[in-house]
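Give me the fold.
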Amino acid sequence: MMITKEKSPRIWLSGAHFINDISTGMLNPIMPFISAKLGISMAIATVVLSISNITANILQPIFGFFADNIQRRAFIFWGLVMSSIFIPFAPIAPNIKILMLCIILGSIGSSIFHPQALGLITKFAGNENVSTKVGVFIAMGSLGFSCGPIVSAFITQYLGLSKIPFLSLLGLSWAYLMFFMMPKIVDSAVKRVRIQFSVAFKDIIVNSRLRLLTVISILKTLITTSCSILLPFLWKNLGHTPSYIGISLFLFIAAGAVGSFISGRVENKFGYKFVLYFSMISTLPLMGIFMLIHASHPVLSMFVFALMGLCTMMATPIIMVTAQNVIPEYKSIIAGIINGFSWGVVAIFMSMAGFWAQAQGITTVLLVVACIPAVCSPIIRKL
């Protein structure tokens, strides 16, 4: 297949998204083993992961503002470099302070990378099949996020936590090559317009459609984050190995990548509201089935869990493109809100959910969480 000049930037950005999200996805399955090494409880480990999600996501609208204003490529390079260096070194931290420092700095790198990358991917997508092209970009990130758990889990089980820092070489090599291969941003029309911080965020906050899409994004993120953080502790308590945990999270997020990839086609056939309704409602029965069989039929429950990931993440590209089309001049800022702020809000909830799960049980918390998007699905009518 011939790679055109228009396709080349999307390939480099999608590859960077894949590699960046390998780093951000690698900690969840091995955190029970890191916490055991450092002697910290599940509740504290959940707070650590929540802080990682907060710093990786809630700052994205701010970095999106700067990305929209400076019109330079620096964010995609330095964001990838930071996440590739600091997160792989977190598992070998000798104490919780160093662990937190590595996680925060690496997560900030991911927060720097995402808004500009999402803004650029729509810039290079052209005017046709934008949802599909953005879906491919998001799918590559989901695929990377799914590979992170399986890579870190197998390294932990067979080589040890001390070997995980070698993964830094992958991201550093891609960032170096991308620096020379990605075209520079040249758009004089955009440069004449300096976006004012207060004006931009006021325009976004007062827009009722954007507020609604942000709420839907938060509800969707609630499922993926809760499962990714809490289920590894449930599986470890049941005696499963790191490789089982890694494979389970891989299937969940990889299926989500498939959902992101096909969402544009499903939208074209059935409409975007159908995709949103299906994505929000289907999680509840699937979570119920998973909880019924996860202990007695662990292999079958893996595939139910994967189907949950596909259904949950199918709506992600549609939410992103719909939101960016509301105010096109703020693409990176809006990407930071939908892809970042939403995750940050959920991460704040998860910092408390860890204590709740420790007191009431992980299954109870996940079943309650799965009810929330289904119950709130009627808000889609307001779009």
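The CA atoms of residues 310 and 383 lie 23 Å apart.
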